[in-house]
Amino acid sequence: MSSFERTVADRYLKTHRRGAFVRIMVRFARGGTALGVFAMIVTLAVMNGFREEIQATLFSATAHFTVFHLAGDIPDTEAALRTVRAVPGVRAASPIRLEKGLLRRPDSDQPPETVVVKAVDPATAEGTSSIFDSLKPTPIRQLREGEIILGQELAQRLGLRIGDTAALAVFRLELGLGGQQPKLAAFRVAGTFYSHSSEYDKSWAFIHLADAMRLARSEGRAEMIEVRADSIDAIETVKPRVIEALGPAFHATDLRESNKALFAALTVEKWAFAAVLSLIVLVAAFNIVASLVLLVTEKRRDLGVLLALGATPKQIQRLFELQGLRIGAVGTAWGLGLSVPLCLVLDRFRLVKLPAAVYDFITYMPFRLKLLDVLLVGALPLLVSWLAARYPAKKAAALDPVDALRAE
Predict the structure, then answer these.
(1) Which of 99, 182, 220, 240 would be a feasible disulfide site paired with 117, CB 3.0-4.6 Å?
(2) Burial, 23: exposed, middle or buried (Cβ in 10 Å; 0-12, 13-18, 19+)?
(3) What's the angle, vertex CA 10, arms to CA 291 and CA 309, rounded to 5?
(4) Where are the alpha helices (DSSP H) in 77-188?
């Protein structure tokens, strides 16, 4: 675009003596664009933040994905572990078994609590799950056979403390004097964990892998192998490599697959909110159209003179399109200049607190910016502004210089 269009567009936007109403409408258009950009950036940042926090919470008690054998227990667990750990992108791998059972104090009449019992290898469990970071009073690697680790909320509900004995009934039936009965075992409470998620804290317990193998009579075979990749985003590439290395008898799954409906709903909500808030930008576009139409009417004589002196209709059209783009660009810059630093500060210092009764897994409102979201939000007002300026620009380009000068 030549300096002619830029110079004329700049003088038209900065006119002072006449066109006060046009200037007010231009300011409203800029303000509306800035408000729309601000609202979209903040909304997308909040939705990104909640999605990331939900993912982090889901993956705190489990690894990034779990590998299991289609026929049941993994036949050669040690060989499978060596194969998995050799796959590029795998940070850690650990064998586990899962059981469901009832837990209670032996000396209490309180009804038992239903629990998910996860048997882990103390030597490698810390590498695949971050839930053990909150374990007290001893680290997970010091877990011994005959000991159990409980969620803090579960321990409080059962009245169990460190060193107490807990009775566990596992839902694996064995033949006894009274017929088939669940397997019973006594464990010493060795520690508690706090995961910031009541789903885990009130219904999960951890025991030594050897204890679970003995209860299941699996003869040293693990039920599954938990795998942690370099990051959550790397799951999609690492998981197929692991299955390819192990063979067709194995399969892998992660919590994003089992919670696919949840993450799909979060994605739909994110872009639905953004679409609704983008209407603010569209409303601002009407102000751009109105202000440029009024400007064309006000500058009718000037446009006639420019056309008579040799300006082409294409140049007149481009200068009005440039005016619309400048209005949108200024509003976009204001919106981004306010929203991006605000989101960074709010997320960095966690200034917006959330009540624990509403969200137990997060104590503050996260604002996570994505570069692609910022680029899309920044491009939308520019495109809308250019399209809004097309109609008055074509009207200005279609002026007959003779008619314009005669009318004056």
Answers:
(1) 99
(2) middle
(3) 95
(4) 77-85, 125-128, 152-158
> What is the CA angle 252-254-260, rounded to 5?
125
| Single-letter residue type at 34 | A
Pure H helices in 108-194: 125-128, 152-158
Residues 236, 239, 240, 241: is their CA dihedral positive or negative?
positive
Q: What is the DSSP string of 343-393?
A: HHHHHHHT-SB--TTT-SS-SB------HHHHHHHHHHHHHHHHHHHHHHH
How many CA atoms lie within 13 Å of 35's alpha carbon, on the beta-carbon side?
14
Segment 124-163, tens digit of pLDDT: 999 999 899 989 999 999 999 999 999 999 999 999 999 9
Largest CA distance in the chain: 114
Using CA atoms, how far apart are residues 331 and 320, in angstroms rounded to an integer?
17
For residue 190, give every residue at least 6 positions away whose Cβ sits within 8 Å of its Cβ, in sequence order, or none: 138, 142, 143, 144, 147, 148, 149, 162
Asked if 174 contacts 336 with a C-beta cutoff of 8 angstroms, the reply is: no
Is the full-model pTM beyond 0.90? no
Q: Which stretches does DSSP call E strand in 261-319?
A: none
Separation CA 354–CA 72 (nearest Å): 43
pLDDT in tens, 48-77: 999 998 888 888 778 999 999 999 999 999
